[in-house]
Amino acid sequence: MPPKYHLITYGCQMNKNDSERISGLLRGLGFESTSEKNQADFILINTCSVRQSAENRVYGHMSDFAKMKKKRPGLIVGITGCMPGRDRNLEFKKKMPIVDLYFPTSQIGQLPRWIAELRPELVNSFDIVEDYTKIMPYRETTRQAYVSIQTGCNKFCSYCVVPFARGLEKNRSVSDILSEIHSLVAQGCVEVTLLGQTVNSYRAPDPENFTKSNPYQDSFAALLWEVGQISEIKRLHFTAPHPIHMTDEVIDAMALPTHVNFLHLPVQSGDDEILRKMNRRYTSSQFLDVIERLRSRLPNIVIGTDIMVGFSGESEEAFEKTVELYKNVRFDIAYIAQYSVRSGTAASRAFKDDVLPEEKKRRWEVLQALMEKIVFEKNEKFVGQTVSVLVDRYESGFCYGNSREMKLVRFLGNTECAGQIVDVRIDRADIWLLEGSLLHDSTTS
Ligand code: SF4
Questions:
Q1: Is 320 helix (H, G, I), strand (E, B) or coil?
Q2: Which atom of ligand 1 is nearest to the CA of 268?
Q3: Ligand 1 mean position to 180 CA, how many Å?
Q4: How remote is the CA of residue 160 from the centroid of ligand 1, in Å?
Q5: Percent of the chain having pLDDT more than 70?
Q6: How far is the CA of 279 from the centre of ligand 1 (A)?
Q7: pLDDT class of 428 with cuts at 50, 70, 90
Q8: Closest by alpha carbon to 423, among 391, 383, 377?
Q9: What's the pLDDT score for residue 125?
Q10: Hey, what long-range contacts does 52-55 have (CB within 8 A, 24 or more apart)?
Q11: Which domains are seen in the chain, by residue range?
């Protein structure tokens, strides 16, 4: 019987992509995945540190795991991801004495050696991979894939743990990225999302590998162009960009036919003093200038954002400026977070968390209501239009998938639609769903 692993993943898309690499590595060692913790030889949690609640969920598993280890002393329990990454004094580790393996994401490639030391019978032979981004991810789906192009972050926003948890920005080579995409294409992939903490700050370590006729000087724009040349890739997008790196060349490359009609551009606040304290490196008018340049090049672009309410010192007037900016831009979607202090960050040392929890909640509700109103108004405009949908699942007579505007679309269909790109006429709009009818003979791949 092959050994089994159970992998629990918290957090962002980067973490999910790292978990795909872990799966690729463990499968390469002969392990099989199991959804049953009780059947696993190795349980690994890939952790997130963005909020305290995400870290608390990790501690919450420990009593269960302790009981399992009593019954099965050979069980290996591991923790990776952002918690070990930022745990300089091993304060978190002390709270989890039953954990056998505790390592940051960058050391994933050492896993085979550590497993072999703990349970030699589980591993026959192995290679150590020093650069974990070279591990081929194992993906459950073949039509859509996330491809990391960089790890870490150099921006040091004052509230954020990422530069501590994941280190400074490190960019993958153009040749590695393109060869991963070509191997995805060979498996039938048609949609790629390029991932990075500030994905558009990408600087190619091997610019000589860009095609000679590539028209762009900006590395990230040049990378978008290169991926756009792969004819099998029908849809390309990226997350998450930083506003200061939205150069004219990047915006121009987004007009290439492969790029989807959507951009997620975090703003966080509409108040300049709060943006300064957050160390976001732009003012609200600089952000608005990016939006203007985007919309003048791509008039129908759908724009999403991230906003944080209740940051240290956010007065009612400062919050109102965020509301004003929101009304001005009319984002299509926003992920709104209530600020919570993260230990080890500059904000935790320099500023007081002085907005009361009930006030944070009220501000969140104000923006959430505004977002839902605007989303509904914008979605209604899709009624009567035809959108292109990559169908990712079929359930009880209905097909579901995202349009090129990253709107969830549902229509009556069949299993054969799954994995296809089809045209759908929108008949009805809701806040989180567009409902439509399949236009027959519209399959494009
Ligand atoms: S840009 Fe700022 S918020 Fe984003 S990962 Fe880097 S430090 Fe964190």
A1: helix
A2: 3
A3: 26
A4: 6
A5: 99
A6: 10
A7: very high
A8: 391
A9: 79
A10: 52/340, 52/342, 54/10, 54/11, 55/83, 55/92
A11: 4-133 (3.40.50.12160), 138-380 (3.80.30.20), 386-438 (2.40.50.140)
